[in-house]
Amino acid sequence: MNFNQKNMESIRFLILAAQRGGERILQDLTKSIGITPAQSEVLHILDRFEPLSLKELGSLLICESGSPSRLVNTMVNDGLVARKENEKDRRYVTLHLTQLGKEKVSQMKNMEEKMYDIMLTTFDSNKLSALHDALINVFKDHPSAEVLKKRNLI
Predict the structure, then answer these.
(1) What is the model's pLDDT at position 118?
(2) What is the pLDDT along the chain (154 residues), one digit of tens a residue?
(3) Which has the closest alpha carbon to 22: 114, 117, 119?
(4) Taking Cα atoms as reference points, which of 65, 52, 102 lies closest to residue 80?
(5) What 3-state class would DSSP assign to 99?
(6) Residue 72 phi, psi (nearest 5)
């Protein structure tokens, strides 16, 4: 196959269509438990890696570029995340899940399982496996893959 701009355009829109379709499913599922997709990512990361500083959290997020301070402030105000000052250096603050945040994580994991079940019943698993391997192969050395590597997703 002679690869050209038309093929690149096709790839671009196929990835965009897949991302938007998955995002719609995720929005519906997270909305049902009272959080946003971005909040679900923060909860997921804190569940796996807490305690984290704001900067450390930001380095693991895909949903947010730059500092996630507004997102975290909203989550603190909603009682999902707590800030804890370091006893030796009050300038250093770490983020932790609250009890409500932990409850949302549990609900979120159930929602994610439903979303992945929908995806697995919609698409052929052999083709999904080939797509997964191809995407890793294409993006593994790209700077955007660093976050995925930090999260042990590739």
Answers:
(1) 82
(2) 678 899 889 988 998 998 898 888 889 889 999 999 999 999 999 999 999 999 999 999 987 766 789 999 999 999 999 999 877 777 789 999 999 999 999 999 988 888 888 888 988 999 989 999 998 998 889 888 888 888 888 8
(3) 119
(4) 102
(5) helix
(6) -65, -40
Give the number of other CB atoms < 10 A from CB of residue 106: 13
d(CA 118, CA 4): 33
Structure tokens at 146: 């660093």
Residue with tokens 């693991």: 60
Distance CA 30, CA 47 (A): 16
Which residue type, as a one-letter code, is found at position 11?
I
For residue 113, CA distances in Å to 57, 99, 116 come to 24, 21, 5
